[in-house]
Amino acid sequence: MTKDSRLSAALHALLHMAEHDGPTTSETLARCMRSHAALVRRTMAGLRQNGLVRSEKGHGGGWRLARDLNAITLRDVHEALGAPEVFAIGNRSPAPQCLVEQAVNHALADTLEQAEAMLVRRFGIITLASLSADFHRRLEAVKKDATHAA
């Protein structure tokens, strides 16, 4: 089963953008992400519609964050992507005649609904600033290890 990696990809792009002083082109982001510029543009369009990024046209143009990293949560990005389903688990049949399957559907639906609500709430407290801080901690650790290895 293919997993939906759009949230991960969008977060990846946004953090790369945060590391650039000026606008970042779709081509640059595509190279960073080992992706295609057209896919980056399509993703960025949804983020722009939700006020997370803005685009600058012309020579030297590209994408910029429209808000501070502290003001963008994973939930904001998830919603900008159309709030895709977070779980791939589903019912075998949406309207079964079998009473056993009805009981199974009810249990799964209720449990998945609660789990998704909890996950989306958690997305709402994780900011891009916290992801950026984690990236910078990891970068410093790599630099430290490289210095010790030399």
Question: Quick recap of the structure?
Answer:
The protein is mostly helical and 150 residues long.
Spatial sequence of strands, sheet with the most strands:
1-2
Cα-based radius of gyration, to the nearest Å:
20 Å
**Helix/strand-derived class?**
mainly alpha
- In total, the number of strands is 2
- The structural domain count equals 1
Task: Measure the end-to-end span.
Answer: 44 Å
Spell the H/E element sequence.
HHHEEHHH
Query: What overall geometry do the principal axes of the alpha carbons give?
Result: globular
| Helix percentage range | 55-70%
- Poorly predicted regions are none
What does this structure look like?
With 150 residues, this protein is mainly alpha-helical. 59% of the residues lie in helices and 5% in strands. A two-stranded antiparallel ribbon has the order 1-2. A hairpin with a 5-residue loop joins strand 1 (53-56) and strand 2 (62-65). The mean pLDDT is 92.
Topology readout:
Elements: H1 6-18, H2 26-33, H3 37-49, E1 53-56, E2 62-65, H4 74-80, H5 99-123, H6 128-149
Antiparallel strand pairs: 1-2
Helix pairs in contact: 1-2, 2-3, 4-5
Protein name: Rrf2 family transcriptional regulator
Pfam family, one: Rrf2
